[in-house]
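Two proteins follow. First one:
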Amino acid sequence: MNRSNALVRSSATTILLAALLLASFAWSVALFGGFVAEDAYILYRYVENVFRHGALIYNPGDRINALTSPLHAGVTTVLYAVTRECLWTGKIAGLLLTCATSAAVAWRYRSDRFLALTALALVALPSSTVLWAFGGLETPWLMMISTLTALALWRRASTCGTYVVLFLSGLGFLARYDAALFFAPLAAAALLREPSWRHRLGAIAAGSSLPLAWLAIAWTYYGDILPTSYYIKPPGLSLGRVLDNAEYIGAWLGFTGLLPIAILAIALRPSTFTARPGALIWPLALGVTLELAYGLSMATTHMMFLFRSFTPYVPAAALVLLELLRRARSGPRPRADVALAAFVALAAPGHAAHAWYTWDRSLNGLSPVGELRRIGVRDWMDDFMVSLWDQAAAIRTDWARRPAASGGALRIGTYAGGIVPYELPEAYVYEALASFRHGEPQYRNFNLHADYCMVITPFFGPLESQLQDQPDRFEQVFERSFVLDGQMQSFRVYYNPRPDGHPLGNRIDRRQPLSAATPVE
């Protein structure tokens, strides 16, 4: 045992394990670097419209909030003002944030090489961490903020620390509304240890000022404090949905390595979870638990594939487990060192293999539930995303030769609100998130009102129903078929020479314009 422990604790072993971690991370970066979520282009359209039209809007003339992350929209707007580019600026920022977050967690355990290496394996290596670093959504920003908030809470109590925790909690809320469940226990813990009521109130004001300002803007300008995604993809607690989401959460805990580390902690020392871990661990554990509980109602909704909803809280969950391990370990610990070294040695190739499976086979990795389990990142990008770029090009080319192009705005009905609308910024787009109005059905069909409509068969049902039982009214201008999520699908674009009048008001609380035939300007 002494020889094996001496081998594990040697500098050469540490360097080898670090090299394995770096190689696994680089492998995942190479696989996923080209990935971008289609929904990211919704944000990019909003941001670029700030500079085209002077407002954070999706369609010119409309005040509709389809943004799930006001903070991400603000940061991306600032970056675009400097670089005049959204996609690669966001990818670089996401990669840097992910690396910085992983390094921050590992740095906390710098005095214990095996805990530091384990921290890197838990935070940086999961496929979900790397994929969503490049996805173009708010995930790496929220992950960084949640980690900084936890580390700020764990610093020695101070008035400055209270202000920092509350301010970061406010930013976390702006990164994603449901993150309030995670940040609330951390903010409460910071306030409870602050002895001065004056500073408590000051910290609350510092933390709530930006969220309250945004909510006031959203209410007055957009007509609702909630984004339209809340109404289009609401949480639900049906038994089948809860069971699927519970299975999904179990898969997340397993594939990130959090569950194996928890089991390892118990096996190494049964008293790990009965030892006094310090009062400030529990707010962090409670925040992660609340997010998992909320996930029972929504973890597998559309565009949450590969554990997107939980990825921002991987570092927080890792901090809880690593802190429990650190505080429970004392004296000679050969078994612990060998076990953690073995975990890191297995985690590196394990995550690399899972990254390959995600890239080649399933956007949900090895998860047994969730959407898009039969199409990998490669085919998603090469088939589905390329098809959308080509549909945008087909619409632009066909519209240019139509007499109608000289009068009125181009109107498009689509199931995908990102790439095609982004490529055709002059178009008015009917899409579930952008076209939702209070009192209207969640997924109203606007194809009769559009100059062009995009359909997928049989994914969204029979062609006749997607064309609202008037197929003779439309002229096909694009078609491509390929296997999507295990089934052959046909992607088509149709031209409508006689579209009906524009039927929507310009805010979520306005169902109809002044006239049903009001043109889009």
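Second one, unrelated to the first:
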Amino acid sequence: MKITSISKALTKSAILFAFIPLLLQCKEDNGDPTPDPEPPTITSISPTSGPLGTEVTINGTNFSTDGTQNTIQFNGTPAAAKSASVSQLVVDVPSGATTGNVTVKVNGQTANGPVFTVEEEPDNIYDCSESEITASITWEDISAGDAVDYVIQCAISITNDAVLTIAPGVIIQFEGEESGLFTSDGGGLKAIGTEDNPIRLMGTSEQKGVWQGIYFASTHPENRLEYVEVMHAGRTASTQSNVKGAVQLTRGDESRASIVNCTIQDNDGYGVFITEGSNLEAFSGNVIAANELSPVGIYFSNLPMLDATSIYSPDNGQAYIEVKNDIFDTDGTVHRLEVPFRFVDNSRYYVESALTIEAGATLEFASGSALRLGDQGNDCGLTTASLNAVGTEESPITFKGVADGNGSWLGIGINSSSPNNQLMYCNISGGGAGKIFNADHESANLVLQCESRVKIQNSTLSESGGHGMVIHDEDASLVEFEENMLINNEASPIALYFHQLDQLDTASAYEEGNGNPYIKVSGSVLDENDMTLAALDVPYRVGVSTLGRILYVERALTILPGVIMEFETASGIKLGNPSADCVDNTGSLNAVGTADSPITFKGVTEGQGTWRGIGINSSTSANHLAFCEISGGGSEQMYNAGGQGNIVMQCAATLTVENCIIIDSGAWGIDFVSGGNALNETDNTFDNNASGDIAGE
């Protein structure tokens, strides 16, 4: 039996040795085998200590992206990966774990990592069975120094007129997406620290949005945060405001609070959000930085509550104050901040009280938004609203669109006769995207409506999608208009009515970069005040009014040397009354230029008969044309009784014409209607008048 066994063994060995060449041949035929996977490594863990349930990040190499394929243990106690990548695993310390090494096993290969120290469950965890506070209570500073006094893992609701008072120096950590502090049903939160001993409210980790935040939904008079640090909040949206924010007033006029000398930073969503109608009683000395959205989200009416002593850091995710729309109905001042105010709703922001804007402030507007003085439902309703925006040369006030370029927002509309309406050292750009008032037919950076009054000095109106400025109604006026720049607008620098022309000053700039380099003038009646018209750096281009009216002059009109007046086809100047040709009239036209600086009356287009001309129905000796160039009139008859030419004299008109050039009339150079006219003309030049130079000669 023994020999047989040896024989069998030798036989097996022989077979094996014979098979080896075949195996080698197969290896040569099939190429190299798949290499073994690289073993995992653990380079670090964070944190290295904490209680059971602590979230730990394991950094290393060669982990499986399928979390279930990583066998993770804390000193032998298994844990499941919450997320997995090749270089990082995130896991919670499992129940029952003890202090020891962290290991990860992948594809049968194990990596040993650092020791994780399991700490005992802290004794400062708040008892969430008492999450509704219905009787007043104080949370004292129970741990010395920087030790955490309370860990809160639920939503604390303060109701029933109770007040939760948090003492100076208290440190609270919040854990879980439901945790936070809420007041409602009359409850109050009084958290008042000191400069040397602030209250600190933070997450259990430094990740933004670890907890919800602080929500005031009550009007308790003691709602106040002072010398409080709020960090890592904003996890979920408030059901009241429907936004994320670290500190919120959330229930309209049912919420009230003060926020003073607080630091609100490293939060998800807004640093502070104030719901429409909420009463922010005091807000000063705060630092709001590094939040995911704007430092403050607020409604228009509450803007004056934001103080200039607070810091609204540009390192917030949205480097502006986000302004939502409601009616500004209480007098107040908008202060200059280090970030702009951005009006984000595509609608008109109505001002129904006295709005003052501090020098250096910047206001940005969304594409469909406008700033409008007056009542929402009525273009011309009586209003005591005012806009007082007085900057300085060093600190101008800026109104502009969020987007750059012409016509990126609607503009500013003024419907108020308040003496406080002032725009001084203001830069208004990018308006004119559409109409501001219901009755508007033209768009502009600035529109004056109804009986508006405004003072504009040292300001720039530029890059409008329409005009730089429009005076929409004949009853509106510029109280003062001095040293302004109206440049780079798609249409004209200004559109207004004839009798408003003397409100423009010669020191302002009207020419540069405008699509229509002229003052757009609508016909109207000069019947209240005498007017002197001075030369600007662009012509006056005269059309008819929306009622089809040309320029009627019933007062003394004086035109100074160098003035250029261009007339559209149906327009002209007529001394007289719109309702009758030959009524007594004290109106006069005195246009006396010089040889070096003549006065020009002409059509918009060149040639014979391109506008109506000048009509004289006045017997005053003040009617005087000297060194004038009058061309292209006579497109149609001037008066009901007739007359057609560059100049038409009606009834008992008196006129002196000297050293003028009168050419290219569609009819007569000078025509007469109804007899009795007194013309004194000397040293004039006539040429190319279709019917002749002077009728009757």
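SUMMARY FIELD: The first strand starts at residue 41 and ends at 46. The two ends are 161 Å apart (CA to CA).
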